[in-house]
Amino acid sequence: MVITFIRLCQWLCLILLMLLKTECSDDVEMTFIHSAVAKGAVCLDGSPPAYQFDQGFGEGVDKWLIHIQGGGWCESTKSCLLRVNKSNGVGSSTLMQKFNFTGVFSSKQEFNPGFYNWNRVIMRYCDGASFTGDVEKVDPATNLHYRGARIFNVILDELLAKGLNTASSALLTGCSSGGLAVILYCDKFRAKLPATSQVKCVPDAGYFVHVKDISGKYHFEKFFTKIVKLHNSEINLPSSCTSKMKPGLCFYPEFILPTIKTPVFVINSAYDSYQVQNILAPEKADSHDSWSACKLNISNCSPTQLKRLQDFRSDFIKTLKSGMGRSVSNSTSRGMFINSCYSHCQTGNQINWLGDPASKLDNKAIAEVVSDWFYERNTTQLIDRRHKLPQQC
Ligand SMILES: *[C@@H]1O[C@H](CO)[C@@H](O)[C@H](O)[C@H]1NC(C)=O
Ligand SMILES: *[C@@H]1O[C@H](CO)[C@@H](O)[C@H](O)[C@H]1NC(C)=O
Ligand SMILES: *[C@@H]1O[C@H](CO)[C@@H](O)[C@H](O)[C@H]1NC(C)=O
Ligand SMILES: *[C@@H]1O[C@H](CO)[C@@H](O)[C@H](O)[C@H]1NC(C)=O
Ligand SMILES: *[C@@H]1O[C@H](CO)[C@@H](O)[C@H](O)[C@H]1NC(C)=O
């Protein structure tokens, strides 16, 4: 009797554990590409590149969603050295922690209806230049490696060998500096896949605009220029752009997007918090430090600041439309979801991806609109015209 009872308990525990395990099934291991070190395809500190891969299933076995992780940039030896020690691993794979696969990465249909059963990959970011750098020389004093482009190629080659080379559908996504990488690499990625596969690109919070800051200058352009110089990114930027303008400007999507042939869907907030904090009101442009409270929490913004934010929104939309060019009339090749959340990156965040009413447009979540666009089911160019001010999402 007692033994039966214990047995029963053991069974119950086992079932519970199995249930818990399914619950945690979005725990995806890191893969380090040790063989890449010999090819010099390494993180800033020389450590091997890494990615996380969750295998597709069912009808998704031959579909691939490749996401390029974001995490700012480093524009000087000093800031790249600091980056190497950042605990989130954006300069070294030795410090990387696993990302949880939520939002667009989730393997659960109810959380990610369009892509849950696809092969889902996160390319981990550790180079500091949106995967564009390629400098052969390593400074012995710092041991810094500027090799982001090699990392992109090495991870992509590994995925191609794992089945991406015969994908029926593929989506290149990325957030922030990874979203910028999506724009920069979109056509190259397309070219690696069979002509018969359906390939599209979705930059999330990667549409950084070239507009004047609160001091009337372009401080952020200087930052972009320094990144491109330090990492020798020019050789990996589209020559259609670098032949026409300074390489630093070719980090701005508005000058690249018009030349991209592959379909692109831009997800961005018109009040993107990173852009407000670093492009509109960077510290260097705010000599009286009058914006820090407002940047920290938009409910602290003065009426003048709110007006300036609205002007930024107008500039953002104007710039976006110029980047979309003539193809803006063709929602198959160019889609967009531009809401008003005071936030940055929305696809990997379960709430923004599918849930929060404040991040929806026309009562549709980002997840629905991106799927509709990928499968060419509906009009997919949405800009929030209802909210005149930034929203907390
Ligand atoms: C980074 O960490 C290493 C090891 O802890 C240390 O030796 C080095 O001085 C640190 N570098 C910076 C720039 O903080
Ligand atoms: C991932 O999820 C676990 C469990 O829900 C949580 O404890 C952890 O902080 C999450 N990690 C990240 C990086 O969000
Ligand atoms: C911003 O401030 C408001 C009002 O003080 C507060 O309710 C809200 O929680 C704050 N938001 C954040 C993100 O801290
Ligand atoms: C719209 O773009 C798609 C994909 O680039 C293309 O196949 C189609 O011909 C375009 N349609 C029009 C009306 O230009
Ligand atoms: C397209 O979107 C409209 C407006 O949101 C909706 O009413 C309609 O049902 C959608 N059509 C399809 C085929 O999903």
TrEMBL record:
Family matches, as InterPro entries: PAE/NOTUM
Top EC class of this enzyme: hydrolase
GO terms for biological process, alphabetical: cell wall organization
Taxonomy, superkingdom: Eukaryota
Keyword line: Cell wall, Cell wall biogenesis/degradation, Hydrolase, Secreted, Signal
Signal sequence, start to end: 1-24
Keyword Lipid metabolism appears in the UniProt entry: no
Subcellular location(s) of the protein: Secreted, Cell wall
GO cellular component assignments: plant-type cell wall
Pfam assignment, any one: PAE
Principal location listed in the UniProt entry: secreted
Gene Ontology MF terms in the entry: pectin acetylesterase activity
EC number, as in UniProt: 3.1.1.-
Family the UniProt entry places it in: Belongs to the pectinacetylesterase family.
Summary of the function given for this chain in its UniProt record: Hydrolyzes acetyl esters in homogalacturonan regions of pectin. In type I primary cell wall, galacturonic acid residues of pectin can be acetylated at the O-2 and O-3 positions. Decreasing the degree of acetylation of pectin gels in vitro alters their physical properties.
PANTHER family: NOTUM-RELATED, PECTIN ACETYLESTERASE
Protein name as catalogued: Pectin acetylesterase
